[in-house]
Design goal:
Length: 412
């Protein structure tokens, strides 16, 4: 089925064409008709599935012509995600006369106030800054007809649900509400009951299945050799772009420093950095000036960074959902990618939790020709040994495949 069969407006279809989209993704196929009908929709889907277009295309069609007050409000958990979604909607709307703006914290108010004053149709916002604008009277939500709560589980994790509720209370009751979330924990269920009317659920794949195009590998390693192994991996992998995930801001800074010393072009993304530093890092990574982005979970949540060929988990995430979010950076919208996880002895229980969560055993491999020190992890799963894991591959395999080559890393 092509986009032209949905009944989207010609200007919106031109926008889709200019984006180079040919076939709708599964969530677009299922959500667009429901949203065009005016239904409330719960999209149980991760980023990378095409959910932005799934809600934006039908709503831009419904908005038709420019009017001065926001009629579509999209709430996002992070500034980066807000900026990214605004850019996508602006792209879809480029052949319409609809105006799109974004407000988020960490930057001045001046430009945002000017945009709000000029009048706009679509407002993308993070909850805190939007509440500030509402408090100052620089923005009103009384004309909102369509409300999107994006990455609702992330907003919950970040403690934004009370703010989200206050914002919803300022929107008219008569509206269409859409909620997107990779998981639906009980608090989100309660929000759904309160904020939505007879919602239709569009579930894409099993909620817990990571993108099927991603190859997962675990590299067991002694703690003292973690950084050496990371450097060796980067040296041997034929990558286009890599995100290295760390658990803490401090850890991210340390790893970035180390990689810089080894002549990698590195950008860092974490919440202690200023907004302009974060934007600079993201832009540089997108444009290929940096080949490696070192990031923490909060900073990287939901970011749409195109063509990430590899994700390396320098630290094993403590929440299994973060694993899914991290590897969602690669293998997006059917590109393929690899996800490598460095694992030290203390990580065993977190790795087990991840494997249970994704219902999949992740193969353990050793990097060829790396001067390993012994770690008890290499004995794991050998027949006759105490079993740490159930099912799947046994022992640690030496790894020669995937995108490894004996030579040097590909240079840009
Ligand atoms: P999202 O899940 O909305 O963050 O989208 C993930 C990525 O998929 C973005 O880079 C989109 O531009 C891209 N995308 C969305 N829909 C399509 C489509 N129908 N065909 C190709 N790419 C798409």
């Amino acid at each position: 089925m092509a986009f032209s069969k949905f009944g989207l407006s010609p200007a919106v279809l031109d926008g889709v064409k200019a984006m180079g989209y040919v076939d709708p993704t599964p969530i677009q196929l299922r959500a667009i008709p429901l949203i065009l009908e005016g239904q409330d929709v719960i999209g149980s889907a991760q980023t990378g599935t095409g959910k932005t277009a799934a809600f934006a295309l039908p709503i831009l069609t419904k908005l038709e012509r420019h009017q001065p007050s926001p009629r579509l409000l999209v709430l996002e958990p992070t500034r980066e995600l807000a900026a990214q979604v605004e850019t996508a909607i602006r792209d879809f709307a480029r052949f319409t006369d609809l105006r799109v703006a974004v407000v988020f914290g960490g930057v001045g108010y001046g430009r945002q106030m000017d945009e709000l004053k000029r009048g706009l149709d679509v407002l993308v916002a993070t909850p805190g800054r939007l509440l500030d604008h509402l408090g100052r009277g620089t923005c009103r939500l009384d004309q909102v007809q369509h409300l999107v709560l994006d990455e609702a589980d992330r907003m919950l994790d970040m403690g934004f649900l009370p703010d989200v509720k206050r914002i919803i209370e300022k929107c008219p009751r008569q509206r269409q509400t859409m909620l997107f979330s990779a998981t639906i924990p009980p608090q989100i269920e309660t929000l759904i009951q309160w904020a939505m009317k007879n919602p239709q659920t569009v579930e894409i794949g099993a909620r817990r299945t990571p993108a099927e195009t991603v190859k997962h590998v675990i590299y067991p390693v002694a703690d003292a050799q973690k950084t050496d192994l990371l450097l060796a991996l980067l040296d041997r992998v034929h990558y286009d772009s890599v995100i290295v995930f760390c658990r803490t801001k401090h850890g991210a800074d340390r790893v970035a420093h180390l990689l810089k010393r080894s002549n990698h072009a590195v950008a860092v993304l974490h919440s202690n950095r200023t907004q302009s530093e974060r934007e600079h890092a993201l832009r540089g990574f997108r444009e290929g000036r940096y080949e490696v982005l070192v990031a923490t979970d909060i900073a990287a949540r939901g970011l749409d960074i195109a063509d990430v060929s590899h994700v390396i988990n320098y630290d094993v995430p403590h929440h299994p959902e973060d694993y899914i979010h991290r590897i969602g950076r690669t293998g997006r919208a059917a590109a393929t990618g690899d996800a490598f996880t460095l694992m030290v002895a203390e990580d065993s229980k977190h790795v087990m939790a991840i494997e249970r969560f994704i219902s999949q055993k992740i193969p353990r491999v050793k990097l060829e020709n790396f001067d390993y020190r012994y770690t008890a992890l290499f004995e794991e799963d050998k027949p006759g040994q105490p079993r740490g894991y159930s099912g799947g591959a046994r022992g640690v395999r030496v790894h020669g495949g995937y995108h490894f080559a004996p030579g040097r890393r590909r240079r840009r």
